[in-house]
Description:
The complex is a heterodimer of chains A (about 300) and B (about 300). Chain A has helices spanning about 1-50, 55-60, 75-80, 80-115, 120-135, 135-155, 165-170, 170-185, 190-200, 205-215, 215-230, 235-240, 250-255, 265-285, 285-300; strands at about 260, 260-265. Chain A has about 300 residues and is an all-alpha fold. In chain B, α3 packs antiparallel against α10 (about 205-235) and α12 runs antiparallel to α13. Chain B is flat. The chains are: A mainly alpha (about 300), B mainly alpha (about 300). The interface between A and B is large, with 95 and 96 residues.
Amino acid sequence: MTQTTLTDFRAAPPAGSTRRDRRRALYWSYFFLVVFVVFFLTPPIYMLITSLKTSQEISAASSPWWVFDPTLRNYTELLTSSVFLTFMRNSAVISLAVVIVTMLISIPAAFALSRMRFWGSATLATGVFLTYLIPDTLLFIPLYKIFAWLNEVTGIEFLNQWWLMIIIYPTLTVPFCTWIMIGYFASIPKELDEAALIDGAGYFQTLTRIFIPVALPGIIAATIFAFTVAWAQFLYPMAFTTSTDQLVLPVGIVTTLIKGDVFNWGQIMTGALLGAAPPLIIYAFLMDYYIAGLTAGATKG
Amino acid sequence: MLEGGRGGAGLRRMLRRKSAIAFLMSLPLILVIALLVLYPAVYAFYLAMLNKSMERFVGLANFSFLFKRETFWMVVKQSIIFAVTAVFFKALIGFLVAHFVHNVPAKGQRKWRGMLLIPWVIPPAMSTLAWLWLFDPSYSAFNWLLQRAGAEAVPWLGDPYWARFAVILVNVWFGAPFFMIMYLAALKSVPEQLYEAAAIDGANWFQKMWYITLPMMRNIIAITVLFSLIVTFANFDIVRVLTAGGPIDQTHVFATWAFKIGIESNDIPLGACVSLFMVPLLAIAAVFILRDVNRRGVEG
Protein backbone atom coordinates (compact mmCIF):
# COMPACT_ATOMS: atom_id res chain seq x y z
CA MET A 1 0.00 0.00 0.00
CA THR A 2 2.70 2.43 1.02
CA GLN A 3 4.70 1.08 -1.85
CA THR A 4 2.11 2.16 -4.45
CA THR A 5 1.49 5.57 -2.94
CA LEU A 6 5.20 6.12 -2.87
CA THR A 7 5.63 5.29 -6.55
CA ASP A 8 2.54 7.34 -7.43
CA PHE A 9 3.96 10.25 -5.56
CA ARG A 10 7.26 9.87 -7.28
CA ALA A 11 5.67 9.46 -10.68
CA ALA A 12 3.65 12.65 -10.35
CA PRO A 13 6.32 15.33 -10.87
CA PRO A 14 7.78 13.77 -14.08
CA ALA A 15 4.24 13.51 -15.51
CA GLY A 16 3.75 17.22 -14.82
CA SER A 17 7.05 18.10 -16.39
CA THR A 18 6.31 16.02 -19.51
CA ARG A 19 3.03 17.91 -19.86
CA ARG A 20 4.93 21.17 -19.62
CA ASP A 21 7.54 19.79 -22.03
CA ARG A 22 4.79 18.82 -24.39
CA ARG A 23 3.24 22.28 -24.30
CA ARG A 24 6.63 23.85 -24.90
CA ALA A 25 7.24 21.42 -27.81
CA LEU A 26 3.85 22.43 -29.20
CA TYR A 27 4.68 26.14 -29.12
CA TRP A 28 8.04 25.54 -30.75
CA SER A 29 6.33 23.39 -33.40
CA TYR A 30 3.92 26.23 -34.20
CA PHE A 31 6.78 28.70 -34.31
CA PHE A 32 8.82 26.64 -36.78
CA LEU A 33 5.74 25.77 -38.82
CA VAL A 34 5.09 29.48 -39.29
CA VAL A 35 8.75 30.03 -40.26
CA PHE A 36 8.63 27.26 -42.87
CA VAL A 37 5.24 28.31 -44.21
CA VAL A 38 6.68 31.79 -44.76
CA PHE A 39 9.72 30.27 -46.53
CA PHE A 40 7.56 27.95 -48.65
CA LEU A 41 4.91 30.51 -49.58
CA THR A 42 7.08 33.57 -50.23
CA PRO A 43 7.62 32.90 -53.98
CA PRO A 44 3.97 32.21 -54.88
CA ILE A 45 2.77 35.18 -52.81
CA TYR A 46 5.40 37.41 -54.36
CA MET A 47 4.16 36.24 -57.77
CA LEU A 48 0.66 37.38 -56.83
CA ILE A 49 1.91 40.73 -55.48
CA THR A 50 3.92 41.52 -58.61
CA SER A 51 1.13 40.37 -60.95
CA LEU A 52 -1.14 43.06 -59.47
CA LYS A 53 1.32 45.90 -60.14
CA THR A 54 1.80 48.25 -63.07
CA SER A 55 5.21 48.49 -64.75
CA GLN A 56 5.66 51.95 -63.22
CA GLU A 57 5.08 50.67 -59.71
CA ILE A 58 7.48 47.73 -60.29
CA SER A 59 10.33 50.05 -61.27
CA ALA A 60 9.47 52.61 -58.56
CA ALA A 61 11.45 52.75 -55.30
CA SER A 62 8.43 51.82 -53.17
CA SER A 63 8.31 48.55 -51.20
CA PRO A 64 8.35 45.51 -53.46
CA TRP A 65 6.37 43.57 -50.84
CA TRP A 66 3.20 45.63 -51.05
CA VAL A 67 0.78 46.69 -53.80
CA PHE A 68 -0.08 50.40 -53.53
CA ASP A 69 -2.01 50.69 -56.77
CA PRO A 70 -3.52 47.28 -57.59
CA THR A 71 -4.52 46.61 -61.18
CA LEU A 72 -5.77 43.61 -63.13
CA ARG A 73 -4.32 44.90 -66.37
CA ASN A 74 -1.65 42.20 -66.55
CA TYR A 75 -4.38 39.57 -66.37
CA THR A 76 -6.65 41.17 -68.98
CA GLU A 77 -3.70 41.73 -71.32
CA LEU A 78 -2.50 38.12 -71.11
CA LEU A 79 -5.93 36.56 -71.27
CA THR A 80 -6.77 38.52 -74.43
CA SER A 81 -3.39 37.92 -76.08
CA SER A 82 -3.77 35.30 -78.81
CA VAL A 83 -0.19 34.09 -78.27
CA PHE A 84 -0.82 33.37 -74.60
CA LEU A 85 -4.16 31.71 -75.33
CA THR A 86 -2.40 29.47 -77.87
CA PHE A 87 0.08 28.36 -75.16
CA MET A 88 -2.84 27.63 -72.85
CA ARG A 89 -4.73 25.68 -75.49
CA ASN A 90 -1.64 23.63 -76.41
CA SER A 91 -0.97 22.82 -72.75
CA ALA A 92 -4.60 21.94 -72.04
CA VAL A 93 -5.06 19.72 -75.11
CA ILE A 94 -1.74 17.94 -74.55
CA SER A 95 -2.37 17.35 -70.84
CA LEU A 96 -5.89 16.00 -71.34
CA ALA A 97 -4.81 13.78 -74.25
CA VAL A 98 -1.86 12.46 -72.22
CA VAL A 99 -4.18 11.64 -69.30
CA ILE A 100 -6.47 9.64 -71.63
CA VAL A 101 -3.60 7.83 -73.39
CA THR A 102 -1.95 7.04 -70.04
CA MET A 103 -5.11 5.58 -68.56
CA LEU A 104 -5.83 3.52 -71.69
CA ILE A 105 -2.34 2.02 -71.47
CA SER A 106 -1.88 1.76 -67.69
CA ILE A 107 -5.17 0.33 -66.48
CA PRO A 108 -5.29 -2.78 -68.74
CA ALA A 109 -1.56 -3.36 -68.24
CA ALA A 110 -1.85 -3.06 -64.45
CA PHE A 111 -4.83 -5.45 -64.51
CA ALA A 112 -2.89 -7.98 -66.55
CA LEU A 113 0.24 -7.67 -64.42
CA SER A 114 -1.53 -7.89 -61.07
CA ARG A 115 -4.03 -10.65 -61.89
CA MET A 116 -3.16 -12.61 -65.03
CA ARG A 117 0.33 -14.06 -64.86
CA PHE A 118 2.09 -14.66 -68.15
CA TRP A 119 5.61 -15.44 -69.21
CA GLY A 120 7.84 -12.59 -68.08
CA SER A 121 5.07 -10.66 -66.28
CA ALA A 122 7.01 -10.42 -63.00
CA THR A 123 10.07 -9.13 -64.85
CA LEU A 124 7.89 -6.64 -66.69
CA ALA A 125 6.41 -5.32 -63.42
CA THR A 126 9.90 -4.70 -62.04
CA GLY A 127 10.99 -3.27 -65.40
CA VAL A 128 8.10 -0.79 -65.32
CA PHE A 129 9.36 0.52 -62.02
CA LEU A 130 12.95 0.77 -63.21
CA THR A 131 11.97 2.71 -66.36
CA TYR A 132 10.28 5.22 -64.08
CA LEU A 133 13.78 6.02 -62.82
CA ILE A 134 15.22 6.81 -66.28
CA PRO A 135 15.11 10.62 -66.38
CA ASP A 136 13.90 12.73 -69.29
CA THR A 137 17.29 14.46 -69.33
CA LEU A 138 18.87 11.20 -70.51
CA LEU A 139 16.36 10.61 -73.29
CA PHE A 140 15.76 13.98 -74.90
CA ILE A 141 18.84 13.96 -77.17
CA PRO A 142 18.32 10.44 -78.63
CA LEU A 143 14.58 11.14 -78.97
CA TYR A 144 15.37 14.36 -80.83
CA LYS A 145 17.54 12.41 -83.26
CA ILE A 146 14.97 9.61 -83.60
CA PHE A 147 12.19 12.01 -84.55
CA ALA A 148 14.45 13.89 -86.95
CA TRP A 149 15.21 10.53 -88.59
CA LEU A 150 11.50 9.56 -88.67
CA ASN A 151 10.85 12.82 -90.49
CA GLU A 152 13.37 11.89 -93.19
CA VAL A 153 11.87 8.41 -93.56
CA THR A 154 8.15 9.19 -93.48
CA GLY A 155 8.07 12.81 -94.62
CA ILE A 156 5.87 13.71 -91.63
CA GLU A 157 7.10 16.70 -89.64
CA PHE A 158 7.52 15.53 -86.03
CA LEU A 159 9.80 18.15 -84.53
CA ASN A 160 8.38 21.59 -83.77
CA GLN A 161 4.85 20.14 -83.54
CA TRP A 162 2.92 20.50 -80.28
CA TRP A 163 1.16 17.13 -80.74
CA LEU A 164 4.52 15.34 -80.58
CA MET A 165 4.25 15.84 -76.81
CA ILE A 166 1.19 13.55 -76.75
CA ILE A 167 3.45 10.79 -78.09
CA ILE A 168 6.39 11.52 -75.77
CA TYR A 169 4.80 12.46 -72.42
CA PRO A 170 3.36 8.95 -71.79
CA THR A 171 6.96 7.82 -71.22
CA LEU A 172 6.88 10.02 -68.10
CA THR A 173 3.39 9.09 -66.89
CA VAL A 174 2.77 5.46 -67.91
CA PRO A 175 5.45 3.70 -65.77
CA PHE A 176 4.46 5.45 -62.53
CA CYS A 177 0.70 5.20 -63.15
CA THR A 178 0.98 1.50 -64.02
CA TRP A 179 3.05 0.95 -60.91
CA ILE A 180 0.56 2.55 -58.52
CA MET A 181 -2.37 0.87 -60.30
CA ILE A 182 -0.69 -2.53 -59.83
CA GLY A 183 -0.57 -1.71 -56.12
CA TYR A 184 -4.23 -0.70 -55.96
CA PHE A 185 -5.40 -3.70 -58.03
CA ALA A 186 -3.33 -6.12 -55.95
CA SER A 187 -5.16 -4.90 -52.83
CA ILE A 188 -8.55 -5.96 -54.27
CA PRO A 189 -9.53 -9.35 -52.78
CA LYS A 190 -9.14 -12.21 -55.26
CA GLU A 191 -12.56 -13.61 -54.27
CA LEU A 192 -14.20 -10.64 -55.93
CA ASP A 193 -12.94 -11.32 -59.45
CA GLU A 194 -13.16 -15.10 -58.96
CA ALA A 195 -16.85 -14.65 -58.18
CA ALA A 196 -17.22 -12.54 -61.32
CA LEU A 197 -15.47 -15.19 -63.45
CA ILE A 198 -17.72 -17.92 -62.03
CA ASP A 199 -20.74 -15.77 -62.87
CA GLY A 200 -19.54 -15.83 -66.47
CA ALA A 201 -17.95 -12.40 -66.74
CA GLY A 202 -15.06 -12.09 -69.18
CA TYR A 203 -11.78 -10.38 -68.36
CA PHE A 204 -12.97 -7.16 -69.93
CA GLN A 205 -16.14 -7.16 -67.84
CA THR A 206 -14.20 -8.03 -64.69
CA LEU A 207 -11.99 -5.03 -65.36
CA THR A 208 -14.74 -2.52 -66.17
CA ARG A 209 -17.39 -3.73 -63.71
CA ILE A 210 -15.23 -4.59 -60.71
CA PHE A 211 -11.65 -3.36 -60.85
CA ILE A 212 -12.21 0.14 -62.16
CA PRO A 213 -15.08 0.99 -59.76
CA VAL A 214 -13.32 -0.54 -56.73
CA ALA A 215 -9.95 1.06 -57.51
CA LEU A 216 -11.47 4.42 -58.45
CA PRO A 217 -9.53 6.38 -55.76
CA GLY A 218 -6.31 4.97 -57.21
CA ILE A 219 -7.40 5.88 -60.72
CA ILE A 220 -8.19 9.44 -59.63
CA ALA A 221 -4.76 9.70 -57.96
CA ALA A 222 -3.06 8.39 -61.11
CA THR A 223 -5.07 10.80 -63.28
CA ILE A 224 -4.02 13.76 -61.16
CA PHE A 225 -0.40 12.61 -61.32
CA ALA A 226 -0.51 12.25 -65.11
CA PHE A 227 -2.13 15.64 -65.56
CA THR A 228 0.28 17.54 -63.32
CA VAL A 229 3.33 15.88 -64.86
CA ALA A 230 2.13 16.64 -68.38
CA TRP A 231 1.23 20.22 -67.46
CA ALA A 232 4.59 20.93 -65.79
CA GLN A 233 6.87 19.18 -68.30
CA PHE A 234 9.49 21.65 -69.47
CA LEU A 235 12.47 19.87 -71.05
CA TYR A 236 10.82 18.05 -73.96
CA PRO A 237 8.85 21.02 -75.33
CA MET A 238 11.90 23.21 -74.73
CA ALA A 239 14.05 20.89 -76.85
CA PHE A 240 11.52 19.88 -79.52
CA THR A 241 9.40 22.98 -80.23
CA THR A 242 10.51 26.45 -81.28
CA SER A 243 7.71 28.23 -83.22
CA THR A 244 5.61 30.47 -81.01
CA ASP A 245 2.34 28.77 -82.00
CA GLN A 246 3.67 25.31 -81.04
CA LEU A 247 4.84 26.13 -77.50
CA VAL A 248 3.24 24.92 -74.28
CA LEU A 249 2.55 27.29 -71.40
CA PRO A 250 5.71 26.88 -69.23
CA VAL A 251 8.05 27.11 -72.22
CA GLY A 252 6.04 29.92 -73.81
CA ILE A 253 6.20 32.03 -70.67
CA VAL A 254 9.91 31.44 -70.14
CA THR A 255 10.94 32.06 -73.76
CA THR A 256 8.54 34.67 -75.18
CA LEU A 257 7.76 36.91 -72.21
CA ILE A 258 11.46 37.37 -71.52
CA LYS A 259 12.58 39.36 -74.54
CA GLY A 260 16.17 40.50 -74.51
CA ASP A 261 16.78 43.01 -71.75
CA VAL A 262 13.20 44.23 -71.51
CA PHE A 263 11.70 42.16 -68.71
CA ASN A 264 8.02 42.87 -68.19
CA TRP A 265 7.95 41.31 -64.74
CA GLY A 266 4.30 42.10 -64.10
CA GLN A 267 3.30 40.01 -67.09
CA ILE A 268 5.86 37.27 -66.42
CA MET A 269 4.56 36.79 -62.88
CA THR A 270 0.96 36.85 -64.10
CA GLY A 271 1.81 34.22 -66.71
CA ALA A 272 3.63 32.09 -64.15
CA LEU A 273 0.68 32.30 -61.77
CA LEU A 274 -1.78 31.36 -64.53
CA GLY A 275 0.56 28.50 -65.47
CA ALA A 276 0.58 27.33 -61.85
CA ALA A 277 -3.19 27.71 -61.45
CA PRO A 278 -4.50 24.41 -62.93
CA PRO A 279 -2.34 22.13 -60.73
CA LEU A 280 -3.01 24.36 -57.71
CA ILE A 281 -6.79 24.26 -58.27
CA ILE A 282 -6.74 20.47 -58.67
CA TYR A 283 -4.64 20.24 -55.51
CA ALA A 284 -6.99 22.51 -53.56
CA PHE A 285 -10.02 20.37 -54.36
CA LEU A 286 -8.51 16.89 -54.48
CA MET A 287 -5.69 17.19 -51.91
CA ASP A 288 -6.25 13.74 -50.41
CA TYR A 289 -6.11 11.99 -53.78
CA TYR A 290 -3.06 14.03 -54.71
CA ILE A 291 -1.23 12.99 -51.56
CA ALA A 292 -2.42 9.38 -51.87
CA GLY A 293 -0.83 9.24 -55.33
CA LEU A 294 2.42 10.74 -54.02
CA THR A 295 2.79 8.36 -51.10
CA ALA A 296 1.53 5.24 -52.91
CA GLY A 297 4.55 5.28 -55.19
CA ALA A 298 7.04 5.10 -52.37
CA THR A 299 5.33 2.99 -49.73
CA LYS A 300 4.50 0.31 -52.26
CA GLY A 301 7.89 0.51 -53.91
CA MET B 1 -9.08 -40.80 -66.58
CA LEU B 2 -10.25 -39.65 -69.98
CA GLU B 3 -12.28 -36.92 -68.35
CA GLY B 4 -9.26 -35.71 -66.38
CA GLY B 5 -7.04 -35.68 -69.46
CA ARG B 6 -9.53 -33.65 -71.45
CA GLY B 7 -10.09 -31.34 -68.51
CA GLY B 8 -6.31 -30.80 -68.23
CA ALA B 9 -6.03 -29.96 -71.94
CA GLY B 10 -8.97 -27.56 -71.62
CA LEU B 11 -7.43 -25.96 -68.59
CA ARG B 12 -4.11 -25.67 -70.38
CA ARG B 13 -5.79 -24.11 -73.42
CA MET B 14 -7.66 -21.72 -71.15
CA LEU B 15 -4.45 -20.78 -69.38
CA ARG B 16 -2.73 -20.22 -72.70
CA ARG B 17 -5.63 -18.06 -73.84
CA LYS B 18 -5.47 -16.20 -70.54
CA SER B 19 -1.80 -15.39 -70.90
CA ALA B 20 -2.34 -14.37 -74.52
CA ILE B 21 -5.02 -11.90 -73.43
CA ALA B 22 -2.81 -10.67 -70.60
CA PHE B 23 0.05 -10.15 -73.03
CA LEU B 24 -2.18 -8.20 -75.41
CA MET B 25 -3.41 -6.01 -72.54
CA SER B 26 0.20 -5.16 -71.61
CA LEU B 27 1.33 -4.72 -75.21
CA PRO B 28 0.83 -0.92 -75.36
CA LEU B 29 2.85 -0.60 -72.14
CA ILE B 30 5.60 -2.82 -73.55
CA LEU B 31 5.67 -0.81 -76.77
CA VAL B 32 5.90 2.56 -74.99
CA ILE B 33 8.71 1.32 -72.75
CA ALA B 34 10.60 -0.48 -75.53
CA LEU B 35 10.30 2.14 -78.27
CA LEU B 36 10.33 5.41 -76.35
CA VAL B 37 12.42 4.61 -73.27
CA LEU B 38 14.70 1.59 -73.74
CA TYR B 39 15.51 2.11 -77.42
CA PRO B 40 16.46 5.81 -76.98
CA ALA B 41 18.48 4.93 -73.87
CA VAL B 42 20.51 2.36 -75.79
CA TYR B 43 20.65 4.60 -78.87
CA ALA B 44 22.23 7.32 -76.70
CA PHE B 45 25.29 5.08 -76.26
CA TYR B 46 25.59 4.67 -80.04
CA LEU B 47 25.04 8.40 -80.67
CA ALA B 48 27.76 9.27 -78.17
CA MET B 49 30.26 7.42 -80.35
CA LEU B 50 29.68 9.39 -83.56
CA ASN B 51 31.41 12.51 -84.81
CA LYS B 52 29.64 15.87 -84.78
CA SER B 53 28.05 15.53 -88.24
CA MET B 54 27.04 11.96 -87.26
CA GLU B 55 28.60 10.40 -90.34
CA ARG B 56 31.56 8.62 -88.80
CA PHE B 57 31.99 6.23 -85.89
CA VAL B 58 34.68 7.63 -83.60
CA GLY B 59 34.59 5.18 -80.70
CA LEU B 60 35.35 6.83 -77.39
CA ALA B 61 36.84 9.99 -78.91
CA ASN B 62 33.98 12.14 -77.54
CA PHE B 63 34.64 10.88 -74.04
CA SER B 64 38.37 11.52 -74.20
CA PHE B 65 37.61 14.98 -75.62
CA LEU B 66 35.36 15.69 -72.64
CA PHE B 67 37.93 14.46 -70.14
CA LYS B 68 40.37 17.04 -71.45
CA ARG B 69 37.97 19.94 -71.02
CA GLU B 70 38.05 21.93 -67.84
CA THR B 71 34.35 22.80 -68.12
CA PHE B 72 33.49 19.10 -68.00
CA TRP B 73 35.19 18.54 -64.66
CA MET B 74 33.55 21.70 -63.36
CA VAL B 75 30.14 20.27 -64.38
CA VAL B 76 30.95 16.95 -62.70
CA LYS B 77 31.89 18.73 -59.49
CA GLN B 78 28.91 21.08 -59.58
CA SER B 79 26.44 18.23 -60.34
CA ILE B 80 27.68 16.25 -57.36
CA ILE B 81 27.75 19.23 -54.99
CA PHE B 82 24.31 20.32 -56.21
CA ALA B 83 22.69 16.89 -55.85
CA VAL B 84 24.28 15.88 -52.54
CA THR B 85 23.76 19.23 -50.78
CA ALA B 86 20.24 19.72 -52.08
CA VAL B 87 19.13 16.18 -51.18
CA PHE B 88 20.68 16.45 -47.72
CA PHE B 89 18.83 19.66 -46.92
CA LYS B 90 15.60 18.48 -48.53
CA ALA B 91 15.67 15.35 -46.36
CA LEU B 92 16.65 17.29 -43.23
CA ILE B 93 14.03 20.02 -43.64
CA GLY B 94 11.41 17.46 -44.68
CA PHE B 95 12.20 15.40 -41.58
CA LEU B 96 12.03 18.39 -39.23
CA VAL B 97 8.87 19.87 -40.73
CA ALA B 98 7.19 16.44 -40.67
CA HIS B 99 7.85 16.34 -36.90
CA PHE B 100 6.46 19.83 -36.40
CA VAL B 101 3.28 18.90 -38.28
CA HIS B 102 3.07 15.61 -36.39
CA ASN B 103 3.36 17.48 -33.06
CA VAL B 104 0.38 19.79 -33.52
CA PRO B 105 -3.18 18.61 -32.73
CA ALA B 106 -4.57 16.28 -35.40
CA LYS B 107 -7.35 18.57 -36.53
CA GLY B 108 -4.96 21.36 -37.51
CA GLN B 109 -2.51 19.07 -39.33
CA ARG B 110 -4.44 19.01 -42.60
CA LYS B 111 -4.31 22.79 -42.91
CA TRP B 112 -0.54 22.98 -42.26
CA ARG B 113 0.18 20.06 -44.54
CA GLY B 114 -1.94 21.67 -47.26
CA MET B 115 0.04 24.92 -47.13
CA LEU B 116 3.44 23.24 -46.83
CA LEU B 117 3.03 21.09 -49.94
CA ILE B 118 2.35 24.05 -52.26
CA PRO B 119 5.96 24.42 -53.57
CA TRP B 120 5.79 20.84 -54.81
CA VAL B 121 2.49 21.45 -56.65
CA ILE B 122 3.57 24.48 -58.70
CA PRO B 123 5.35 23.53 -61.95
CA PRO B 124 9.06 24.13 -61.15
CA ALA B 125 9.64 26.19 -64.29
CA MET B 126 6.92 28.61 -63.09
CA SER B 127 8.00 28.88 -59.46
CA THR B 128 11.64 29.33 -60.50
CA LEU B 129 10.52 32.43 -62.42
CA ALA B 130 9.33 33.88 -59.11
CA TRP B 131 12.74 33.12 -57.58
CA LEU B 132 14.45 34.69 -60.61
CA TRP B 133 12.46 37.84 -59.93
CA LEU B 134 13.21 37.69 -56.21
CA PHE B 135 16.92 37.51 -57.13
CA ASP B 136 16.72 40.24 -59.81
CA PRO B 137 19.99 42.26 -59.93
CA SER B 138 18.34 45.69 -59.71
CA TYR B 139 14.91 45.04 -58.13
CA SER B 140 15.63 42.06 -55.86
CA ALA B 141 13.01 42.03 -53.11
CA PHE B 142 15.45 40.17 -50.84
CA ASN B 143 18.07 42.86 -51.33
CA TRP B 144 15.44 45.49 -50.54
CA LEU B 145 14.88 43.78 -47.17
CA LEU B 146 18.62 43.37 -46.60
CA GLN B 147 19.27 47.02 -47.33
CA ARG B 148 16.43 48.03 -45.00
CA ALA B 149 18.18 45.99 -42.31
CA GLY B 150 21.42 47.82 -43.07
CA ALA B 151 23.16 44.95 -44.88
CA GLU B 152 24.88 44.90 -48.26
CA ALA B 153 22.98 43.89 -51.38
CA VAL B 154 23.82 40.32 -52.45
CA PRO B 155 24.67 39.56 -56.12
CA TRP B 156 22.39 36.48 -55.98
CA LEU B 157 22.90 35.24 -59.52
CA GLY B 158 25.87 37.35 -60.62
CA ASP B 159 28.49 35.80 -58.35
CA PRO B 160 29.41 32.12 -58.97
CA TYR B 161 29.23 31.13 -55.30
CA TRP B 162 25.96 32.91 -54.62
CA ALA B 163 24.54 31.51 -57.86
CA ARG B 164 25.43 27.97 -56.74
CA PHE B 165 23.80 28.70 -53.40
CA ALA B 166 20.72 30.05 -55.20
CA VAL B 167 20.14 26.99 -57.40
CA ILE B 168 20.50 24.71 -54.37
CA LEU B 169 18.17 26.91 -52.31
CA VAL B 170 15.46 26.82 -54.98
CA ASN B 171 15.83 23.05 -55.36
CA VAL B 172 15.54 22.56 -51.59
CA TRP B 173 12.49 24.83 -51.53
CA PHE B 174 10.85 22.80 -54.28
CA GLY B 175 11.73 19.31 -52.99
CA ALA B 176 11.52 19.55 -49.17
CA PRO B 177 7.67 19.40 -49.13
CA PHE B 178 7.80 16.02 -50.88
CA PHE B 179 10.07 14.63 -48.16
CA MET B 180 7.80 16.20 -45.56
CA ILE B 181 4.74 14.34 -46.91
CA MET B 182 6.62 11.03 -47.10
CA TYR B 183 8.07 11.31 -43.59
CA LEU B 184 4.76 12.46 -42.15
CA ALA B 185 3.08 9.34 -43.55
CA ALA B 186 5.91 7.23 -42.11
CA LEU B 187 5.69 8.93 -38.69
CA LYS B 188 1.99 8.15 -38.52
CA SER B 189 2.71 4.47 -39.07
CA VAL B 190 5.07 4.22 -36.06
CA PRO B 191 3.03 2.57 -33.27
CA GLU B 192 2.38 5.00 -30.40
CA GLN B 193 2.97 2.17 -27.88
CA LEU B 194 6.68 2.17 -28.69
CA TYR B 195 6.98 5.78 -27.52
CA GLU B 196 4.85 5.08 -24.45
CA ALA B 197 7.04 2.14 -23.53
CA ALA B 198 10.16 4.26 -24.05
CA ALA B 199 8.69 7.05 -21.89
CA ILE B 200 8.03 4.57 -19.08
CA ASP B 201 11.63 3.40 -19.37
CA GLY B 202 12.68 7.04 -18.99
CA ALA B 203 13.98 7.59 -22.51
CA ASN B 204 14.65 11.19 -23.39
CA TRP B 205 13.77 12.96 -26.63
CA PHE B 206 17.05 12.05 -28.32
CA GLN B 207 16.85 8.38 -27.33
CA LYS B 208 13.30 8.13 -28.68
CA MET B 209 14.48 9.64 -31.96
CA TRP B 210 17.60 7.47 -32.20
CA TYR B 211 16.16 4.13 -31.06
CA ILE B 212 12.56 4.31 -32.30
CA THR B 213 11.86 6.95 -34.96
CA LEU B 214 14.97 6.55 -37.10
CA PRO B 215 15.02 2.73 -37.19
CA MET B 216 11.28 2.66 -37.97
CA MET B 217 11.77 5.16 -40.79
CA ARG B 218 15.00 3.71 -42.16
CA ASN B 219 13.42 2.21 -45.27
CA ILE B 220 11.42 5.27 -46.27
CA ILE B 221 14.44 7.53 -45.69
CA ALA B 222 16.64 5.28 -47.86
CA ILE B 223 14.07 5.16 -50.67
CA THR B 224 13.29 8.88 -50.72
CA VAL B 225 16.97 9.84 -50.59
CA LEU B 226 17.84 7.43 -53.39
CA PHE B 227 14.99 8.64 -55.62
CA SER B 228 15.69 12.25 -54.88
CA LEU B 229 19.38 11.81 -55.67
CA ILE B 230 18.44 10.53 -59.14
CA VAL B 231 15.88 13.26 -59.79
CA THR B 232 18.11 16.04 -58.42
CA PHE B 233 21.18 14.79 -60.27
CA ALA B 234 19.12 14.88 -63.48
CA ASN B 235 17.53 18.27 -62.73
CA PHE B 236 16.98 20.61 -65.65
CA ASP B 237 14.13 23.07 -65.05
CA ILE B 238 15.44 24.99 -62.05
CA VAL B 239 19.02 25.52 -63.23
CA ARG B 240 17.89 26.30 -66.78
CA VAL B 241 15.39 28.98 -65.76
CA LEU B 242 17.36 30.46 -62.87
CA THR B 243 20.89 30.77 -64.29
CA ALA B 244 20.93 28.86 -67.63
CA GLY B 245 24.29 27.56 -66.38
CA GLY B 246 25.83 30.98 -65.84
CA PRO B 247 27.72 32.95 -64.72
CA ILE B 248 30.41 31.57 -67.08
CA ASP B 249 29.15 27.96 -66.91
CA GLN B 250 29.65 27.83 -63.13
CA THR B 251 26.21 26.44 -62.26
CA HIS B 252 25.78 23.94 -65.11
CA VAL B 253 24.71 20.44 -64.17
CA PHE B 254 24.83 17.50 -66.60
CA ALA B 255 21.31 18.05 -67.94
CA THR B 256 21.64 21.77 -68.67
CA TRP B 257 25.10 21.37 -70.15
CA ALA B 258 23.94 18.47 -72.34
CA PHE B 259 21.04 20.66 -73.51
CA LYS B 260 23.37 23.53 -74.32
CA ILE B 261 25.76 21.34 -76.30
CA GLY B 262 23.29 18.91 -77.87
CA ILE B 263 20.35 21.17 -78.76
CA GLU B 264 21.60 24.76 -78.71
CA SER B 265 25.06 24.14 -80.22
CA ASN B 266 23.68 21.27 -82.32
CA ASP B 267 26.44 18.80 -81.36
CA ILE B 268 24.12 15.85 -80.73
CA PRO B 269 26.81 13.17 -80.13
CA LEU B 270 28.70 15.26 -77.57
CA GLY B 271 25.42 16.21 -75.85
CA ALA B 272 24.44 12.53 -75.68
CA CYS B 273 27.88 11.79 -74.32
CA VAL B 274 27.43 14.34 -71.50
CA SER B 275 23.97 13.06 -70.57
CA LEU B 276 25.33 9.50 -70.31
CA PHE B 277 27.25 10.51 -67.21
CA MET B 278 23.95 10.32 -65.34
CA VAL B 279 23.83 6.55 -65.98
CA PRO B 280 26.25 5.32 -63.25
CA LEU B 281 24.04 6.72 -60.49
CA LEU B 282 20.99 5.15 -62.14
CA ALA B 283 22.78 1.80 -62.30
CA ILE B 284 23.61 1.93 -58.60
CA ALA B 285 20.01 2.79 -57.77
CA ALA B 286 18.75 -0.04 -59.97
CA VAL B 287 21.00 -2.54 -58.18
CA PHE B 288 19.67 -1.46 -54.78
CA ILE B 289 16.05 -1.61 -55.91
CA LEU B 290 16.42 -5.02 -57.58
CA ARG B 291 18.05 -6.36 -54.42
CA ASP B 292 15.13 -5.03 -52.41
CA VAL B 293 12.62 -6.61 -54.82
CA ASN B 294 14.41 -9.97 -54.67
CA ARG B 295 14.63 -9.92 -50.89
CA ARG B 296 10.94 -9.16 -50.72
CA GLY B 297 10.32 -12.06 -53.10
CA VAL B 298 12.19 -14.43 -50.75
CA GLU B 299 10.36 -13.18 -47.67
CA GLY B 300 6.95 -13.03 -49.31
